[in-house]
């Protein structure tokens, strides 16, 4: 069966088809009101969430299906020490599809190895967040009409921001897309992600410098929960703040996106600017998740096309946020385009 663990699990044609499906759902909601009648979505959230969990729930309800699950791992058997592998074997007996959010990177991939039902990654640590990316793509499509030849500015926590990592993996596949990276030096994009960009990016040290260049400005919060050193978080948290003066430097056709929650990085005055698309983006999240649930249930008979071919390895992963450091999973690695050996679960270099 097919899972959605990372944007690379979808071909560009499949991404486009899911966006088209979401647009069809928006135009003909009544056509889909019973599309998942009798089906159950399990939402397994090991980490806090408002938008993503509620939007999955609303999506399944609007497809006529049901939802079960937990929003706090402390209220599940995880608190008794159950592994992801065992939890997913159990949940496979009760539901038809799973949306999983986990603080460990690669946890949804481990789940997919033991599951009898499709797994959707709803965010794993600082790694990946493919359904937010599909939300972002649907928003860009509805606001700007196309993906090709856009310049995308990514601002804030590019190190731990999983939404940034996933958006890059999807957008880099469209023709002529350029990236502008705006972050404090401590929160720069990880090397494995920079490799994805080739020559198609530049780094800016201020928002003022970046504003006139971008068609899409993707603002993110500094990911407090991923910092070992809280003083470091305090020092970096307000590095970039988008306000009306900076908005005045942007193109009239530009849009501002933010996966939310916002902390201080966009002042509330910016909300009134028609180019601020982040609350429209939230609504798109529900429609694209409807399209994803509908499509993955239809694809249940298809084999997962493997974007990566992993091999067993003796090298342990040194990323302490990786699931392989806490659960007894088989150590697996793959070689990237530059021949670097990387962890199959979290993509960090094993060198
Ligand atoms: C994002 C996430 O969880 O990664 N939120 C979301 O899913 N909308 C962004 C964030 O938490 O900063």
Detail the poorly predicted runs.
none
Query: What is the oligomer described by this structure?
Result: single chain
Q: Report the helical percentage.
A: 25-40%
**Proportion in β-strands:** 15-25%
Q: What would you report as the Rg, rounded to the nearest angstrom? A: 20 Å
Ligands present: N-carbamoyl-L-aspartate
Q: What strand line-up does the widest sheet have?
A: 7-6-5-8-9
Shape: globular
Mean pLDDT score, rounded? 94
What is the tally of beta strands?
12
Content-based structural category: alpha/beta
Amino-to-carboxy terminus distance:
32 Å
* Element string (H = helix, E = strand): HEHEHEHEHEHEHEHEHHEHEEE
Specify the number of helices.
11
Largest sheet: 5 strands, parallel
Outline of the structure:
The protein is an alpha/beta fold and 351 residues long.
Description:
By secondary structure, this protein is of the alpha/beta class. It has helices at residues 12-27, 51-62, 84-91, 107-114, 130-144, 162-171, 191-197, 207-210, 230-236, 244-247, 278-298; strands at residues 40-45, 66-70, 97-102, 119-124, 151-155, 178-182, 201-204, 216-219, 255-257, 311-312, 332-335, 341-343. A 5-stranded parallel beta sheet has the order 7-6-5-8-9. The chain has a 4-stranded parallel beta sheet with strand order 2-1-3-4, sandwiched between helices. Strand 5 (151-155), helix 6 and strand 6 form a beta-alpha-beta unit. It is globular.
């Amino acid at each position: 069966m097919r899972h959605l663990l990372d944007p690379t699990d979808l071909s560009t044609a499949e991404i486009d088809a899911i966006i088209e499906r979401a647009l069809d759902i928006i135009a003909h909601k009544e056509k889909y009101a019973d599309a998942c009648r009798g089906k159950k979505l399990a939402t397994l959230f090991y980490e806090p969430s408002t938008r993503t969990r509620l939007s999955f729930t609303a999506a399944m309800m609007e497809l006529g299906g049901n939802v079960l699950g937990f929003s706090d791992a402390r209220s599940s058997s995880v608190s008794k020490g159950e592994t992801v592998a065992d939890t997913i074997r159990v949940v496979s007996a009760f539901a038809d599809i799973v949306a999983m959010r986990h603080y460990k990177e690669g946890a949804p991939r481990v789940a997919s190895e033991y599951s009898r039902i499709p797994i959707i990654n709803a965010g794993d640590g600082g790694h990946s967040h493919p359904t937010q990316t599909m939300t972002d793509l649907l928003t860009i499509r509805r606001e700007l009409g196309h993906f090709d030849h856009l310049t995308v500015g990514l601002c804030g926590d590019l190190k731990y921001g999983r939404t940034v990592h996933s958006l890059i993996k999807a957008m880099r596949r469209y023709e002529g897309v350029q990236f502008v990276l705006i972050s404090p030096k401590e929160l720069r994009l990880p090397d494995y992600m920079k490799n994805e960009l080739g020559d198609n990016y530049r780094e800016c040290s201020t928002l003022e410098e970046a504003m006139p260049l971008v068609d899409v400005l993707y603002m993110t919060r500094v990911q407090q929960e991923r910092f070992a050193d809280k003083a470091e978080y305090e020092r970096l948290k307000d590095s970039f703040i988008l306000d009306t003066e900076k908005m005045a430097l942007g193109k009239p056709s530009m849009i501002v996106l933010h996966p939310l929650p916002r902390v201080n990085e966009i002042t509330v005055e910016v909300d009134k600017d028609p180019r601020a698309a982040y609350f429209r983006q939230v609504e798109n999240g529900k429609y694209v998740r409807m399209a994803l649930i509908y499509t993955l249930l239809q694809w249940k008979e298809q084999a997962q096309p493997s974007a990566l071919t992993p091999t067993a390895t003796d090298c342990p992963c040194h990323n302490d946020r990786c699931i392989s450091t806490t659960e007894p999973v088989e150590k697996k690695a793959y070689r990237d385009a530059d021949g670097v050996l990387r962890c199959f679960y979290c993509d960090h270099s094993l060198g």
